[in-house]
């Protein structure tokens, strides 16, 4: 049976052995048998056995040949699969980046549309003063915002305990006028809790109404209208499609819309009340003017208090029933009062003021003012007093018409609060606003960006747009004003301005506000424009290197290939050893190497040449030329720049595999041209593969020597001590020589640890120590990549294992740890304790010996510790 160690490893060796054995067997076997044996039967039997033996040997050799070929093919298939997976990963990463960019762009566009729609809706609602029109606009606008035809509005009557459905659209259009109890249905839920309420499937909700048409509604929501924290109505919206649901953003939008609608409804109600009161007052005044002869009947029936004063003295002659109610005094008590006792003496006017008004009224000057009167019980109430001169029974008198305006005062306070809220809302909008007449005169404004205009904000009102804006912008604004008033439609345009060498972009919206004026809203969209430009840049460029990306490169290839009679050439560059750098020094260092390659390529070509990063470590240059000599010069230029870069001794040197192809005929098949250049590049990469990896490893070893913070004799001391201890432990000479190499490069993996951790002057944190422990695995991968260090790679991986099994990275214990690692652990610890480190000062020899004995059996091999102490003694 042949020893397995002497079985040839290659198909050529197997074939040579087969030929030699077969030739010897054929030439000499018969003569040897005839010389040894004389019996013809034995010779015949041996000849037959010889044939079968030759067949067995041939079969065995053929089996080895097939087995070796299968192993070679399997190795090649694995390499091809790894290359394919790397390319697929790169393509997936680019696809994810593009999807993220598209998603962010869509989110920005959707938010802008929502804000614009909400702003336009708010302006439309605030201009509605008719309640019915306002309610219909609320339903239609809300349905449009959420994109559903089904909506309605309910107003609540607390006295009767019902809610009345006033306006309906879609499926609710036929339910106008419907009355429901406040204790029933979804409206009742919202009235009780005072918050928005949503039901995912109304047809299955246990509290739903049993009307058949409700079964067609699925997801529905009720949003409350509030005034002073109290629910006075609701807005209902529904989806008939089972798959439609209200999103969180839609619910938030409806909540904000309901707040605006509540303000608009309060505004319309206050306007209606004030209008009714104004009509009522005018009717009363007209009634007093119709007939003075019947003044007593009107006098007592008037809804306002009336006091008759003598025009000369101011004394009270008469008063009506309403005055008695207002003051809480009888007619006789009122007549006994003087002017000083008719009002509150502190607020807001005194009796002298009242006497002066009476004198003015006596000479025919009507007086209208508000006053605070004092009732008999001491209560003060606000009234409106109208003083008018009149002749009654031939006597000059002053009629004081007193109207209780307590309710109106409350309404005015509420209206002022609403106006303050509206003003606060306008002030919160970060846009500039202008109220402009059709002739270009600015009536009012709110300025947030004063650098847009020629005049200060307090000088703008009353000026023309030509005095406020720059000439081209003023002319554009006037054209938009004319279009908005003439057509009655919103006008939108954008413009840009330069201020202190900075470019600003703005969007202007001109909307009609009456027949003769417009509201202009100017918004700063500089941030949005910059984001759009950045997204456009990222869609064509690689975010890391700033070069063009693969998508843009392929688009340019297709464009150039479609043009007839155009010369073209492609250079393909592949960065050698990127995976080794990423695995050992981390992806941040790999990114720096990629950026360095990008800088080299930018220097090697003109700014207008198309340079792209088309893969993780692949770059391509597309040039409009078919001169092979020009492409060879370009490749030489790249190599020269790489040599200059590597001459500065970077941590990781650059190595590029380069291939190119140029146009041979037209029209150009750009895909075939790219494939040809890629094939040339790949052949060069295969020829340089091992040498490139060796160069990178040598650079990492040099970096270790530069960055090693325990230089200053540490390596030499380690070599001497470790060899002495190995000799005492009985290790053979060859292993002692490997130990010298092990002593020098056991911390090779520290080139992959940041300087902040390596040189930190205080103890490491838990997270930092976790990172520091990775240097064993990093050093192992580096050593595996170079033949010089491959024999000690396993030692580098395990040199921080502990005798009790609590070490890292494998957690092995005792004799499972290679003896070389156990020797290095003792020597390295002793040298570290007796020399200064960034985190602490050196110990004495005696203290270090005591620490070694303390840790023997836990951290160190106890037998080797004793040998080492004997050596030191």
From TrEMBL:
SUPFAM superfamilies linked: GAF domain-like, HD-domain/PDEase-like, Nucleotide cyclase, PYP-like sensor domain (PAS domain)
Molecular-function GO terms, alphabetical: diguanylate cyclase activity
Keywords per UniProt: Coiled coil, Membrane, Nucleotidyltransferase, Transferase, Transmembrane, Transmembrane helix
Keyword Coiled coil applies: yes
Keyword Secreted recorded: no
Signal peptide range: none
SMART domains, per database record: GAF (SM00065), GGDEF (SM00267), HDc (SM00471), PAS (SM00091)
Taxonomic lineage: Bacteria, Bacillati, Bacillota, Negativicutes, Selenomonadales
Name of the protein described by the UniProt record: Diguanylate cyclase
Record-annotated PAC domain positions: 367-417
Domain HD-GYP: 689-873
Pfam families membership: GAF_2, GGDEF, HD_5, PAS_4, PAS_9
Sequence intervals crossing the membrane: 12-28, 40-63
């Amino acid at each position: 049976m042949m020893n397995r160690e002497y079985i040839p490893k290659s198909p050529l060796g197997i074939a040579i052995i087969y030929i030699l054995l077969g030739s010897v067997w054929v030439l000499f076997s018969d003569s040897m048998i005839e010389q040894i044996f004389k019996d013809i039967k034995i010779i015949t039997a041996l000849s037959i056995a010889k044939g079968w033996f030759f067949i067995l040997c041939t079969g065995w050799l053929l089996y080895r040949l097939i087995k070796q070929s299968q192993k070679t093919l399997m190795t090649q298939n694995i390499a091809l699969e790894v290359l394919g997976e790397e390319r697929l990963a790169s393509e997936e990463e680019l696809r994810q980046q593009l999807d993220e960019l598209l998603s962010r762009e869509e989110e920005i566009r959707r938010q802008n549309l929502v804000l614009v729609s909400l702003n336009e809706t708010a302006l439309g609602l605030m201009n509605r003063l008719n309640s019915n029109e306002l309610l219909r606009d609320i339903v239609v606008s809300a349905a449009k915002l959420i994109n559903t035809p089904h909506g309605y509005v309910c107003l609540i009557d607390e006295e009767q305990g019902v809610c009345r459905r006033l306006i309906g659209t879609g499926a609710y259009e036929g339910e106008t006028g419907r009355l429901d109890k406040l204790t029933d249905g979804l409206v009742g839920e919202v009235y009780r809790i005072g918050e928005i309420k949503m039901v995912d499937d109304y047809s299955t909700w246990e509290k739903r109404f049993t009307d058949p048409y409700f079964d067609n509604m699925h997801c529905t929501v009720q949003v409350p209208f509030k005034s002073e924290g109290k629910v006075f109505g609701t807005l209902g919206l529904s989806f008939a499609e089972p798959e439609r649901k209200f999103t969180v953003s839609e619910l938030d939008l409806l909540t904000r819309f309901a707040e605006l609608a509540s303000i608009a409804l309060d505004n319309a109600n206050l306007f209606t009340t004030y209008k009714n009161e104004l009509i009522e007052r005018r009717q009363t005044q007209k009634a007093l003017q119709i007939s003075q002869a019947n003044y007593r009947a009107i006098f007592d029936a008037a809804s306002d208090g009336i006091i008759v004063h003598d025009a000369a003295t101011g004394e009270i002659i008469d008063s009506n029933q309403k005055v008695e109610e207002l003051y809480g005094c009888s007619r006789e008590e009122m007549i006994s009062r003087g002017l000083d006792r008719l009002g509150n003496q502190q607020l807001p006017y005194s009796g002298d003021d009242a006497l002066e008004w009476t004198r003015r009224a006596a000479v025919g000057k009507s007086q209208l003012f508000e006053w605070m009167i004092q009732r008999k019980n001491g209560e003060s109430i606000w009234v409106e007093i109208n003083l008018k001169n009149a002749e009654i029974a031939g006597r000059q008198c002053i009629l004081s018409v007193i109207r209780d305006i307590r309710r109106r005062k409350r309404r005015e306070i509420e209206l002022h609060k609403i106006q303050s809220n509206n003003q606060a809302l306008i002030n919160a909008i970060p846009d500039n606003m202008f109220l402009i007449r059709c002739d270009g005169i600015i009536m009012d404004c709110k300025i947030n960006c004063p650098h847009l205009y020629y005049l200060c904000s307090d000088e703008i009102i009353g000026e023309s747009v030509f005095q406020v804006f720059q000439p081209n912008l003023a002319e554009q604004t006037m054209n938009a004003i004319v279009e908005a008033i003439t057509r009655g439609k919103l006008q939108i345009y954008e413009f840009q301005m330069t201020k202190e060498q900075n470019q600003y972009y703005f969007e202007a919206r001109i909307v009609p506000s009456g027949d003769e004026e417009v509201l202009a809203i100017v918004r700063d969209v500089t941030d949005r424009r910059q984001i759009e430009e950045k997204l456009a840049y990222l869609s064509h460029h690689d975010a890391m290197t700033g070069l063009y990306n693969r998508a843009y490169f392929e688009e340019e290839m297709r464009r150039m290939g479609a043009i007839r009679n155009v010369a073209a050439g492609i250079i393909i560059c592949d960065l050698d050893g990127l995976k080794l750098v990423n695995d050992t020094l981390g992806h941040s260092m790999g990114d720096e190497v990629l950026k360095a390659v990008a800088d080299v390529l930018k220097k090697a070509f003109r700014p207008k040449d198309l340079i792209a990063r088309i893969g993780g470590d692949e770059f391509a240059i597309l040039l409009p030329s078919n001169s092979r000599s020009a492409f060879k010069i370009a490749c030489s230029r790249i190599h020269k720049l790489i040599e200059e870069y590597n001459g500065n001794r970077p941590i990781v040197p650059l190595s590029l595999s380069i291939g190119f192809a140029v146009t041979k005929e037209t029209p150009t098949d750009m895909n075939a041209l790219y494939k040809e250049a890629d094939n040339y590049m790949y052949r060069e990469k295969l020829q340089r593969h091992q040498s490139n990896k060796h160069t990178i490893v040598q650079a990492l070893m040099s970096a270790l020597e530069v960055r090693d913070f325990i230089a200053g004799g540490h390596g030499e001391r380690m070599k001497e001590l470790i060899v002495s201890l190995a000799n005492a432990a009985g290790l053979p000479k060859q292993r002692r020589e490997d130990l010298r190499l092990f002593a020098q490069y056991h911390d090779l993996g520290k080139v992959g640890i940041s300087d902040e951790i390596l040189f930190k002057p205080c103890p490491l944190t838990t997270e930092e120590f976790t990172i520091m422990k990775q240097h064993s695995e990093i050093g192992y991968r580096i050593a595996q990549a170079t033949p010089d260090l491959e024999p000690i790679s396993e030692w580098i991986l395990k040199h921080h294992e502990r005798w009790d099994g609590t070490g890292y990275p494998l957690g092995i214990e005792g004799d499972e740890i290679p003896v070389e690692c156990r020797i290095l652990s003792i020597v390295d610890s002793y040298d570290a304790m007796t020399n200064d480190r960034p985190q602490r000062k050196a110990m004495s020899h005696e203290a270090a010996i005591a620490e070694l004995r303390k840790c023997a059996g836990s951290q160190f091999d106890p037998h080797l510790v004793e040998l080492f102490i004997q050596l030191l003694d």
